[in-house]
Amino acid sequence: MFVNIGNPLKHMELSKSLCRKVRSFGGRSWFEKLWFLPVWLLLGLSRFIIITVPFRRLSLWLGVHEGINSWVQIADSSSEARAVSISRVVQMAANYTPWKSNCFPQAVTARILLGLYGVPYSLFFGVNRNADDAILLAHSWVTVGRIRVTGGNGFDQFTVVSCFVCPRLRNIAS
Q1: How far apart are CA 8 and CA 20, in angstroms?
Q2: Rounded distance, CA 68 to CA 27, Å?
C-alpha cells in the first residue's frame, strides 16, 4: 500500500519559506515581536468597527477634528522612533491578516497605539479622482512629525478633506 504525500518539492519550498519567515521575525525588534499578535487582533477589531459603527461615532475616537486645516506637528526624536516601531509592526501585522486591512484599519490601529504611548499624531483623510475612469479614490494616513506611520505619502497623491489630531496637541495649539 502506498501513501500519497503530495509533491515533495512543494513541501520543501513551503518549509524554506516558513524558515525564512521565522528568521525574519526573529530579527525584528522586541517591540515588534511583543506587539505583533495584539496589533493583528486590533486590525481585525478596527476593521469590524469601521464596518459596523457609523463614521460620526467613530470620529469621536480618532482625535480632535480640525476640518481641512491639515497640519503636521513637530515631534521629538523619541516620539519619531516610537512612531517608526509602530509603523513597522502595523504594516507587518497587516500583511498577515485574512481580512482586508487597507489604509483605514491601519490608521485606526496606529492611532490607538500612538495614543497608548502618548505620541502626538495627525490622522488625515484624502480623496483623489482617478484620471483614467473618473473614479473617486479615498485614502487615510497617519503622521508623527516627519514620519509617515501608515498610508505612505498621502500628501503627494490625495487632497486632504479631513484631519484629526491628538487631543494633547490641540490643547497646546489653542
Answers
A1: 18
A2: 40
